[in-house]
Amino acid sequence: MAALIIHTLHYKFFLLVTATIIVSVTPVNNFYPEFDSPAYNFTVQETSGAGTEVGKVSATDKDLPSCVTYKIREGNNDIVNRFWINPTSGVIELVSQLDFEIKDSHKLVIEASDCDPDNPRIALVTVSYCFWGLTAGSNGNGCYSLVDYMMQVPYK
Question: Domains of the chain, with CATH numbers?
Fold first, then answer.
């Protein structure tokens, strides 16, 4: 947006004209959102019910004004959705109780999008869930089993 304001002053021997130009600069979407971590690993108890907060992702956008929204892009495709993400805070909650015997781990892909209405830029991150008692790892499903211990019990 630009505006041109012209002031004209008449003097006895000459004419003086001044102009004021107002320029409004609109921001350009230069940057992609960036997650605070390259991946997230969380543990959750099998007995956790709907509404339980089970993690939080966070991304920032260097563009001004800074605005990021979140959504679950992949991994929430069971018959019943298991997870919900707050689109503004990045907090992930359970929608229904998880069952270790049916599925021992869960992996989501979360999308962060900046708020450019014409050409939004996005970033993706993987979120892995293991059940409490399992630890995050890299065995394909994101979780390692607990270490098995063997003991002998004397028999009389």
Answer: 34-139 (2.60.40.60)
